[in-house]
Amino acid sequence: DLNIKPEDRISITGNNGCGKSTLIKKIISELNISNNRLTYIPQEIDISSSKEILNRVRSLDRPGLGKLMSIISCLGSRPERLLQSSSPSPGETRKILLALGMMNEPHIIVMDEPTNHMDLDSITAIEDALNEVNCSLLLVSHDRIFLDRLTDINWDIAEDDKNEHYCLNVILK
């Protein structure tokens, strides 16, 4: 059994193909919280989904859009440039999803490879934002510096001695 407490900051690590994304999807399906209290940012977001997310932003009322754009700015993006875009970049899409989720005061933020498609300034801005949120984090990444700055529990997925199965090792930092 795996437990996630409201204040837990958990990283999931392991080699490519070991099942990190699969584990996240299973955990999300088992969480006992409403969808608006879960912020999930997947590893891959296709172009049509990015456009849908941007359209969702454009449909916000003025106060909601203002709040969202303030968060977007804190995440290291220029709001006016984002709104003028026809399709946000993969990094910008992740920032939008994080900002939308943060507006709902989530109980948990789950991010699968969040630093992919981001420059150093964006990564630093996201670290700062995630350090300020008052919820649990579940982060999958190969970026050890990012994880070390944000998490204090590591769930490492590793092959057993015979390379036949994977096991989950829980490490308190």
Structure description:
- The radius of gyration is 16 Å and the shape is globular.
- The chain is 44% helix and 20% strand.
- By secondary structure, the chain is of the alpha/beta class.
- It has helices spanning 20-30, 47-58, 62-74, 79-84, 90-103, 120-132, 144-150, and strands at 9-14, 38-41, 108-112, 136-140, 153-159, 166-172.
- Helix 2 (47-58) packs across helix 5 (90-103) and helix 3 (62-74) packs across helix 5.
- The longest helix is centred in the middle third of the chain and has 14 residues, at 90-103.
- 28% of the residues are buried.
- The model has no long low-confidence stretch (mean pLDDT 90).
Please give the radius of gyration in angstroms.
16 Å
- Which percent band covers the strand fraction? 15-25%
The strand count comes to 6
The biggest sheet amounts to: 6 strands, mixed
Short description:
This protein is an alpha/beta fold and 173 residues long. 44% of the residues lie in helices and 20% in strands.
Give a quick set of tags describing it:
173 residues, alpha/beta, 7 helices, 44% helix, 20% strand
Give the SSE map.
Elements: E1 9-14, H1 20-30, E2 38-41, H2 47-58, H3 62-74, H4 79-84, H5 90-103, E3 108-112, H6 120-132, E4 136-140, H7 144-150, E5 153-159, E6 166-172
Parallel strand pairs: 1-4, 1-5, 2-3, 3-4
Antiparallel strand pairs: 5-6
